[in-house]
Design goal:
Keywords: NADP, Oxidoreductase. The chain is α/β, with parallel strands linked by helices. Helix content is 38%, strand content 15%. It has one domain: Alpha-Beta Barrel (TIM Barrel). The strands form two sheets. It has an eight-stranded parallel beta sheet with strand order 3-4-5-6-7-8-9-10. The chain has a two-stranded antiparallel ribbon with strand order 1-2. Helix 3 (87-101) packs across helix 4 and helix 7 crosses helix 8. It starts with 7 loop residues before the first strand and ends in a 17-residue tail after the last helix.
Length: 276
């Protein structure tokens, strides 16, 4: 049930992930990142999502240590970058991430993008890390349905989660249906489309009715679609606002109006043709 910022979704391996976490993509200023992580945790967030390529794992780790919340009560995610994919290089990259975060384990480790010819070997490395207990859950990011089908053919474990670009302009309904069928949770990066849809009249009309901001309406739409979200902000008031989602509910009609904004429009790269 979506009752508070500590509300969690149970993954297929029995582990619970908070529905709302802090994303730290493009947080490049170390002190700003430390402060954002600290503010989020002190405001009740229990999940932080980073990645090797964000180059801020040290700051995330420091932000975590600056709070009074026990590491065991937090959910920390990182991701292996494309140039590190492959079996041995993934194991090495994971050690590097753990060292930078200054932690003894990760709650979730993801393959950042489905690098052709490499992601299956990368997945085998993630399975090993999971078996060794240094990662509690393993998953993927930016995988289309065909990537997931390909991965499931040869894997011993299936991903607990697929983190993808997802917002009202790119509602990903077929992919979400496939993931639901296969008990793979869906997590949205860029849940408010980098702010590009905040002036959308439909969203603003619904926001006015609920006396909420357009961002809060979109984030609530995700939650009611059973999607995990990691909105990013370095501003204290925005970090708090992004979490204030549990004292109102969108009607079925409002949910459908927001879903009706879908144009299958990406603001980020397409997982079928990214070149990095």
């Amino acid at each position: 049930m979506l009752k508070s910022l500590q509300s969690t979704k149970r993954l297929h391996n029995g582990i619970e992930i908070p529905y709302v976490g802090l994303g730290v993509f493009k947080m490049t200023d170390p002190q700003e990142t430390v402060q954002a992580v600290q503010t989020a945790i002190e405001s009740g967030y229990r999940s932080v999502d980073t990645a090797a390529i964000y180059k801020n794992e040290e700051s995330v780790g420091e932000g975590v240590r600056n709070t009074k919340v026990n590491r065991e009560d937090l959910f920390i995610t990182s991701k292996v970058w494309n140039s590190d994919q492959g079996y041995d290089s993934t194991l090495k990259a994971f050690d590097e991430s753990l060292k930078k975060l200054d932690m003894s384990y990760l709650d979730l480790y993801l393959i950042h993008w489905p690098v052709e010819g490499k992601y299956k070997e990368t997945w085998k490395a993630l399975e090993r890390l999971h078996n060794e207990g240094v990662v509690k859950s393993i998953g993927v990011s930016n995988f289309h349905q065909h990537h997931l089908e390909e991965l499931l053919k040869d894997s011993n474990e299936k991903p607990v989660i697929n983190q993808v670009e997802l917002h009202p302009r790119l509602s990903q309904e077929p992919l979400r249906a496939f993931c639901k069928e296969n008990d793979i949770a869906v997590e949205a990066w860029s849940p408010i489309a980098q702010g590009k849809i905040l002036d959308e009249p439909t969203v603003n009309h619904i926001a006015g009715k609920h006396e909420k901001s357009p961002a809060q309406i979109i984030l609530r739409w995700h939650l009611q679609n059973d999607v995990v979200i990691i909105p990013k902000s370095v501003h204290k008031d925005r970090i708090i606002e992004n979490a204030d989602l549990f004292n109102f509910e969108l009607s079925m009609e409002e949910m459908n109006q927001i879903s009706g904004l879908n144009l299958d429009e990406r603001f980020g790269p397409d997982p079928d043709n990214f070149d990095f």
